[in-house]
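User: what does the whole thing look like in 3D?
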Amino acid sequence: MRQVAKRVTSADVAKEAGVSRTTVSFVLNDRPGHAIPEETRERVLEAARRLKYRPHASARALAAGHSDIVLLALPDMPIGDGVSRFAEELAAALADRGLTLVAHAGADDRSLQDVCAAVDASAVIGLGAFDQATVQALRAAGVKVVIPSDGNAPSMRHVGRLQAEHLIARGHRRLGYAMPTHPSHLPMARHRLQGVTDACAAASLRHPVVIDVELEVVAAERAVRQWTSHSVTGVCAFNDETALAVLAGARVAGVEVPRGLAVVGADDIPTAALSLPPLTTVSFDLREAGRQRAEAVASTLAGRAPAPGAAPVGPELIGRASS
Amino acid sequence: MRQVAKRVTSADVAKEAGVSRTTVSFVLNDRPGHAIPEETRERVLEAARRLKYRPHASARALAAGHSDIVLLALPDMPIGDGVSRFAEELAAALADRGLTLVAHAGADDRSLQDVCAAVDASAVIGLGAFDQATVQALRAAGVKVVIPSDGNAPSMRHVGRLQAEHLIARGHRRLGYAMPTHPSHLPMARHRLQGVTDACAAASLRHPVVIDVELEVVAAERAVRQWTSHSVTGVCAFNDETALAVLAGARVAGVEVPRGLAVVGADDIPTAALSLPPLTTVSFDLREAGRQRAEAVASTLAGRAPAPGAAPVGPELIGRASS
DNA sequence: TTGAAAGCGCTAACAA
DNA sequence: TTGTTAGCGCTTTCAA
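Assistant: Here's the predicted 3D structure for the full assembly of 646 residues, as structure tokens:
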């Protein structure tokens, strides 16, 4: 009577359907080649359904030599709307291919490796780029596919470029950059800043005045004063939150936005449009990117050549009153 | 020569250290009872280190009968700062206990179950409560521990209560409630609203005027007009983002905050202090909550009685200029 | 077309 | 104190 609610195994299904476990396995994973008569097939499926059979993931992974798990490596802090949509789309696209997405937040490589090993991840997808050492380490931790394996840093830079170009197009000749202070944002921030720097160089402007801006009014005010004293008239912020801090700093410093200082954020978080003034920002359509990544992962995992990366999805500027 | 970079197994470690796999297993999981001489112990550890041995998670889970995976079930996202900190703390506290946290975002139960099964999760932690049916389903999907299995709704209510009490203490006699529109926020929102309602009842005030507020100025303006026309003088918002929308709406409607309308948010997101006016908000110490949850999960998983839930961490009001 | 059998890498009784 | 051994639930080669 002390039935410990034993797990339903494939053997149970086999018995129920009157076939062998092998057959059950073939049917459930519909292995090609083994043309199984529709009748048997149906019987197995029916039995599985009746028993509410769920294959045991760990056992499957052990036997198959790889799991169905894809890990999304996220930076430590708040997840904006853009990333959410990306994750959503990615998860859906992966699910279509029999893969499961879970997320891990944390900047440091160590924890990423540990988590990969702990969930036995087959692939890791990041937002920015992974450096070579990280990729190595992940491989060692048993991960088969790491994406973007390096090449996609450009898309990060695009964000910065777009911010700067927007400002430059509006006549700003001296730019500032608001750097985040949270360590986990740094790598991405550097890439974005690089984009700003590139744009400045392309327009023969001087290097932007880079200042760390904490998410807090006093610090932001100080930053604003520094910028204005350097005759900066437009600042690109690492992201919308940092931009919001700059807005607040400007308010306190008595600098009018965008007249005295134009600011553009990035990521288009939901509250970006609600600030005073509403924030000009740069946003990605991560949807398509999600689909592409999923395809890349799936095909690489399946041993096929990674599909010829479709048209890269560029970021887009959303003009609002802060610039 | 075509070394396929075979995985390092515990057998390799055993060989290297000149002991049996059992010993390796005991050392690596330092099983008590089997007092292993320090000398052997060190030898095994050293061998493992030298070989860069990583136990295979799936194999471990299969043999042990349970994985080390804890799944954090998040609403569809975006993830604010509060939740981030919670997750961070939770992950750290779980890691201390040998457990690994990964997150899954998605409102529907189906995908939650699937993910649980796919990662072979031992426990699931949610932000709000899970209804009984969901808990059942998760159990069926192989999950051992589901938290909060229902009881923790009170802490949600606390948030609402505190918001309302603050307003009431400042003399407001007619309150409004700004409800989020995103479906995945609804369950939590209902709990928080309940707290507001309770507080109103306790003060013999009428039921709050509940209005859905999208994260967008026009909708928010409309809401503000409705509130003022109902002679509402103070509104509790589901969270800070919603509150920010209300602030923006009030601005457009020409209603001065807090003079014409006081507003209090919840969660203390980093940008809450950066708005105009800075947002009064209620915040949780999710850190402590994270630690508690971790302890609860770990002890339940270990078969110990779920520790006598320490002093419940209450939310705390952070007064700023919006109320 | 189906089944038997050999593991995948690890844990945990039970012996020694 | 350490080793032997039998699985955990599934996949997959090889035979039947």
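In plain terms: Residues 7, 9-11, 21-22, 25-26, 29, 31, 55-56, 58-65 of chain B lie near DNA strand C (CB under 10 Å from a C1'). The beta strands of chain B are 69-74, 100-105, 123-126, 145-147, 175-179, 209-212, 234-237, 262-266, 280-283, 316-318.
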